[in-house]
Specification:
Largest sheet: 8 strands, mixed
Strand order of the largest sheet: 1-4-3-2-5-6-8-7
Helix content: 25-40%
Number of domains: 1
Number of strands: 8
Structural class: alpha/beta
CATH class: Alpha Beta
Distance between the termini: 35 Å
């Protein structure tokens, strides 16, 4: 395991999730993508779309304060089969403290082949993206697609977004796209898009 791998413990977090989220949003709104964490309605729709075999993990990138992570656990994903990635050290520490048994990786989701433990390569059932890819240039979006494809070949990923239409130029990225869920109960209203390698 690398230094980036943090095993979650049961230590209570020093800062609550919403307070931490807002604090970090004030520091870097573009990195956060939204002023508030995702709603229960959105998180439950994401969790309902997860598929995995018994020997596969669920990979969540851009996990933030863990609202989606907790919905995944509540929906039946075993803690030992959930891997969450967060680049902000303070948030990664919060996830470590608040998600016992979950593997927390503090690092860059655009470098998944180096970040994800080797024995998990090819063992990702569903990848979920909480990174605001719509705000990034196309070349960065392409890097993310390639990063996920390297560890979850052929699986694609789920992306939740506040865009009415596809947040990614999927054809230019070699992807097929399908909106799998929408909820007006999130603020702002949100969609869950599924992207798969085209062809």
């Amino acid at each position: 395991m690398t230094d980036a791998l943090l095993q979650a413990s049961a230590t209570p977090p020093t800062t609550s999730g919403p307070a931490l989220f807002f604090k970090l949003w004030l520091a870097n709104p573009l990195q956060m993508g939204s002023i508030v964490p995702s709603s229960t309605a959105l998180c439950s729709r994401i969790a309902a779309l997860v598929q995995r075999a018994e020997d596969e993990v669920v990979l969540e990138t851009g996990a933030g304060t863990g609202v989606v992570s907790r919905a995944l656990l509540a929906a039946g994903v075993p803690a030992e089969r959930l891997v969450v990635v967060e680049i902000v050290p303070e948030m990664a520490a919060h996830l470590r403290d608040s998600l016992p048994g979950v593997t927390v990786l503090c690092g860059d989701a655009f470098e998944m082949p180096a970040l994800l433990p080797r024995h998990m390569h090819g063992k990702v059932g569903t990848a979920i993206c909480g990174i605001p890819l719509v705000l990034l240039p196309q070349e960065q979006q392409r890097r993310y697609v390639q990063s996920i494809e390297a560890v979850a070949p052929g699986k694609g990923f789920l992306l939740y977004s506040y865009c009415v239409t596809s947040p990614l130029p999927y054809r230019a990225l070699g992807l097929a796209a399908r909106r799998r869920a929408w909820t007006p109960l999130n603020f702002p209203p949100a969609s869950v898009w599924q992207y798969m390698p085209a062809g």
